[in-house]
Design a protein that fits this description.
Its cofactor is Mg(2+). By secondary structure, the chain is of the alpha+beta class. The chain is built from 20 helices and nine strands. It is elongated, with a radius of gyration of 27 Å.
Amino acid sequence: MISKDTLLSNDLFGDLNPRDWPISISDLPPGSALVGGSVRDALLNKLSQKPDLDFVIPTNAINFSENLSKKINGTFIKLDEKRDIARLVINGWTLDFARQVGENLQDDLLRRDFRINAIALRLTGKPEIFDPTGGINDLKSKKIVAISEKNLLDDPLRILRGFRFMCELDFELEKKTKTFLKNNVDKLSNIAPERMKMEILKIVNSKWNSSVWKTYLELQLLNEWNDNNFPYIELERKDISTKNLIFGSFLSKLIFLLSDEGLSRLTFSKNQIKRCKNLRFWVHKINKLDDLSEDERFQLHIDLEEDLPSFILFLKERDSSPWLKRWKDPHDPLFHPSAPFDGHLLQKAFGIPPGPFLGELIRYLSREKAYGRISTNNEAMEVARKWTLENSPFL
């Protein structure tokens, strides 16, 4: 009789479909194993078409990877010389090779962050699952369990990564693991800003549910990069996984997690910081929307045109659906403001030089169009002529 472990190993091997990999298993040295996210995701039936493949090999990972790159014509990248880790990139595939830590595969897996990431598939001979910590049971119970507090502190980014896995997998943090994370939040300040940013981007691009909000508020993982001056309660009422709004949740979660100063310290781009500032500014005015002047409402849509779904997440239910419907209409003149003419045509028609005056005219025409007071090109040209006569410093 074939054992359950053998059946599971065969199923896992089949799901990973090594025939599609850019390398052959025979290319790997004896004692090699596939570990990490691809094994976990295959067991969860969440495997992407070209998953990142992480291999543990007994020795000389960098030398092996460099030689293999020449054989398969892939791009070789030395990731960490001290820890002997390298990467190959070929045809959309990413393959990482790391030297085994410790005397055997079990030693290596016991040094990892969470039990769901300490599952290996041995690739020597018949495929064989190796799960020394009980990660498969955690996958079944949808729990994130740290192997040890010491392992988290070996690389404190793992503290933030535990929260990220909760978001991505829709799992719960085991009670003791949650305590580990909470007690060591201050260690995150020792992590390079670029590494923090990459982890945060994965967090805000994942789906959140109500338990994620609750856990984050309990852990306060990013307090050092946040002034906690933001109305999370309003956003908490929304289900961020709602299909209609999921594409707008990236920025709304980012301004909840990080202040503008925190974004800067964590090396976010100037464009990302500007977008967050604009969203934050208008969210603070959200309870006074009905009192906005025409020009203020127009400016809201200028500032937030591409990011309006993020703003809509903060609106009251009675407003969110009609706003979203209008934003989805690319021809809505207020929700997608545009001038009836470009600056070159206006310069030619009225002899206006480039500069602030031309910018004011374009804004005026855009606003008149947004509120339906211009509907044809002839009307727009006449409005432009009158405005120019009344306001031109050149006449």
